[in-house]
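A protein record pairs a chain with a discrete description of its three-dimensional fold. The following entry can be read in just this way:
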Amino acid sequence: MEYMTIKDAAEKWGITQRRIQVLCAGGRIVGAVRFGKAWAIPVDTEKPSDARVKSGKYIKHQGEEKNMSDQKIKLFSFFSGSGFLDLGFEKAGFQIELVNEYQPNFMAAYKYARKKMNIKPPKYGYYNTDINEFLEQRQKELQENLADAKKDGSLIGFLGGPPCPDFSIAGKNKGRDGINGKLSSSYVKLIANMKPDFFLFENVKGLWRTTRHREYFEELKKVLYDAGYIMTERLTNAIEYGAPQDRDRILLFGIREDVLAGLGKKDISDFPWDKYQKYKVDEVKQRQWPELEEFHADVETQCPQTVIKELTVEYWFRKNDVENHPNAKDYFTPRAGLIRMQTIEEGDVSKKSYKRLHRWRYSPTVAYGNNEVHLHPYKERRLSAAEAMALQTLPKDFELPADMSLTDKFKTIGNGVPFLLANGIAQTIDDFLRG
């Protein structure tokens, strides 16, 4: 059998060499064989059918190659919660094609919020089910959805942050043996079995920093490496992307080695983790931030000149107009303890519970499990759902359904990835895949 090079095929078919590399890497050119970093294509192979080729987006013009700026990038989302991470990617131009969330109330909130924001539902629907079903009885169904999503030549990614209490220092800390800890393995197995073009794995810093959990993390990476993925990881803080909270997350990005080669890249060392970061955590924390002040209800104060206003609690309360938000009245009213609440100074976040935020400082991690109570800086109450979502930097038109319980509202808010962090990482991945 006679073969032609990618260059020969590009001239024969009138499409770019880079596009042909992508099609070869994705197994979309019949008979293509890889030799090292090069591809050999049977000379009698027909020009691949691709919607974008037909539309002319990748046709060569006057000897120049067009870039891949119009290429679709689709995502299958797992452990979606109410969709904070997904929203960051949607606003960066990614298409969410399938959503999987086990908790029905979180799934209902996901649907509700997107309907309010006029975001179209995922093509392959919502799956209110255990992720393990995709490794068993729903395996074929997921494979068919993936095959259909790839028909137009799109890159396909998996997006997920498995539940993290079993790796959290403040949580259960049961590690790999915990019910939630085992779900990280399920997600990794799903990636290894389904082989999406790329993936993002998100979790708490405890999985990366705690010795016994780090061993498990390395084992998960070994499974992915054996499945053909090249990876890069980073412990990232929400402050770096402009969110007003001190929240660390471990992010693991992986791409199939053949897809990486198809994009014309030799390795992943140039992954631009810091491209969309606005601040350096150390520099932010070294600033002169206000500390403790005696609590006085409803008393206004001026923003100190030494702080970064855009990283303060009050800035985001005003930006999202929290007092007029649909979830403004959604807060817990204590049956007792008001007197104790009044004694907590503004800015005292030293205790495990009853932390009173400072209006002109960033917040500790927005998390409300394990009896952690965050108090309003200058009101005699706990934070409202609207205020908590503002600290998660969600768009002001994001809202949760009125019939959702307060417990579920604060749980889904605390579980979520800050929107600005999600959006920054989404842009970073988009640039890497297109660059």
